[in-house]
Amino acid sequence: MTTATSSRVWWPICVLSAAFLLWRAAVPGGPGMARVYVKPAPAEADASSAGWLAARPDESGAVVSPARTAGVWVAALLTLAIFSFLYKDNPAYRFAEAVMVGVSAAYFMVAGFWDGLVPKLFIPLSQMEWGTVGEVGRSLLTLTPLVLGMMLLWRLLPRGGWIARWPLAFIVGTYAGIRLLSFLEADFVSQIRNTIVPLVVRDTDGLGFDLWASVRNGLMLGGVLSCLAYFFFSMDHRGWYGRVARVGVWYLMITFGASFAFTVMGRIALLASRLEFLFDDWLWLIDPLGKRPPPGL
Amino acid sequence: MAWLQTLDRRWIFLAMLLAVALPQLLQVRVPEKPTPLVLNVFRKIEELPEGSRVLISFDYSPSSEGELAPMAAALVRHCCEKRHRMVLMTLWPDGKPLVERAISRIIEGEYAALGLQAGRDYVNLGYRPGKEVVIKTIATSLRAEFPTDDAGTPLDDLPLTAEVTNLQDLDLLISISAGFPGLKEWVQYASSPLKLPLAVGATAVQAPQAYPYIPRQLLGILAAVKGAAEYEVALGERYPNLAIPERQDAVRRMAPQLWAHLLIIALIVLGNVAALVSRPRGGVR
Amino acid sequence: MLRNTIPWLIAACAGSVIIAAYFVPSAQGWQDTIGQWFEVLASFAFVLGGVNLAMQNLQKISAREPGWGYAAVTLMSFLVTLGVGLFKVGVPADSSGSRWGGSYQAEGSAFWWLYEYAYNPTISTIFALLAFYVASAAFRAFRWKNTEATLLLATAFIVLLGRTYAGAVLTSAIPEEYSAFTFPGLTTLIMGVVNTAGQRAIMIGIALGVAATSLKVLLGINRSYLGSGDG
Known about the structure:
The complex is a heterotrimer of chains A (297), B (285) and C (231).
Chain A (H helix, E strand, L loop, with lengths): L2 H24 L10 E4 L11 E4 L7 E2 L1 H18 L7 H36 L6 H21 L11 H31 L15 H21 L7 H44 L15
Helix pairs in contact in A: 2-3, 2-7, 4-5, 6-7
Chain B lengths: L1 H4 L3 H17 L10 H12 L5 E7 L5 H17 L3 E6 L5 H15 L11 E6 L4 H9 L1 H4 L26 E6 L5 H12 L3 E5 L4 H4 L9 E4 H15 L10 H30 L7
Parallel strand pairs in B: 1-2, 1-4, 2-3, 4-5, 5-6
Helix pairs in contact in B: 2-11, 4-5, 4-10, 6-8, 10-11
Chain C lengths: L4 H19 L4 H35 L5 H19 L23 H32 L5 H16 L2 H6 L12 H37 L12
């Protein structure tokens, strides 16, 4: 599509969309859209100001929240800006992406500060005592992560970045320690144990023979062994061994096919969720959760 | 068929948009039937005696909220119906507001009439950085990791946690998981070494990887939005007050799923037909 | 020594204590201490990531590199979010009249607003975009070429149908006793047997790989995580 054709198509769409939004949002007595209502939160005994909580429009004391209403508009426009990438890369998408990167990096930093550094470092530091030998020992243990943390931040300085290797080594060593045993226990030994299943399964009454369960167990055991055969490269995949490994490949292909289908399912659920936000919270075209009184009431 | 070869992918995008949007706008609903793996989780929560202590870890972020929020809501609703006491936490920094949303929307909103109290009927432990190290620590000492709840009250002062030393004092663990850290870490550091009952809700991407843990290390999986929809149906059959559209977020989202799946199948067929037609005669397949 | 041997010793000690705690209950306290230190370092890593991003964007802006305007947007978003989060702007005050006792994410606060209306919609929409690309990939890349590709394709077909109402409708004529041959039944079989077998084999392989890598780290055979430069 040429730029001129593209403009001819997009201008009418943009004008019609703007007119539609204006009608829904601004016409008195119109259907309305994007308004968020709040009510005062019940004051707790130990709080001097309780803030505001989301409310239904028909609840007593409910008022429109300008900040949250503006928020819904911002969220909707950012959503549309990101969806616009599907047509082609454009400044609106780039802007929304830049906002996301900045906000998310700061979000993680703030969460790390209030939920990590404050309870795990600053509060223990404020409680340090140096009176007895035991207290000195405990205080030194409290100071250690601070020192390691400062060494980690040394990476940001132009010289002496190698100092960050010490805390990095601590992180890698800790991971190595906890993963060595947990993977062996849960993902190796337990998986072998889970695979040891009876190939002849008795009925629940113990007298008959459950053919279907036996076939399932056999298929599962054969599948694990053939896939492992495929992963074992110390033997040439030739002759009978090659044929077993090939069966393993078939199992893996079915596994990947199932994973693909599941992945499709997951992505669609995420899209449905975003569209529901646009149709429900922003445009008020649907109200699946009954958040608003029916139109005309 | 040459047009198929040169089809602008934006037409495919438009088709996908319509396949998902139209069922939503028309509010189409399709029936669901619970499968055994979902029923295993449902029955476990149902059979626990009233007042049991259930830990629910919201191990996801807004990026997978569309898939996992419905199942988190369904599990919390079930615990409320059964008057189980909930210990809520998250291993994801951006999962913390999702825990708070579940509390305000469901525990304090939909179940306001029950008068469930923070500290007595539920505790929000909040978030701690450290990923699987958090699980490993609370496996032996809850207080070493969370000396207080998220509001800053010492766990010893809260009736629900006063007698909880570690994970072994809980009756059921649930992880609603979108990846790392999530269900795999709960299996590795809690259910496998401690032999604790663990149920999980997983994204569609992660769910296939959880099947090998069943049944010894995991008692059941709610796989993706379909798993959540099946759970909502099971809940609705047992508790008729929950068999209403407002309490069935996942069931509602299964109609867009249906049409989008059919579209994908159609696209695979079309793509293969186009490739078949355009293949040069005598060419190697 | 300082750049190589001591880091390895630190890694070996940290890992060994955790392994020892698995077998020796009296070492549990040491494991908890290491866990606490690890969490502090994980928090510092968030700080490191944030400051690094800010510095990179600042460099882009000062050098007027292409796209520096977007770098400015990133930097502004970062600084505003960081400021309102660290200073708890808009957090309802507690009984002492101070906002410092409240949660930094309290409903109605500025940080909460940015999470709800900027972070949440952008990150979830970015992931939602994948629905479109997966459809495009299904059209362009999923080809019936050989036995392996056919198995993959057929499985995707069955599971895509079996996980929706369409699968149940299409095979509704099959009697209940043969329900294993309906689309939902076949999906259950694929997931519970074939997928389980495949995933289990992959899991066993990964577990052995992780164990071997961990041992190499603890024994100092693998020190690649330390990098090679002088830094």
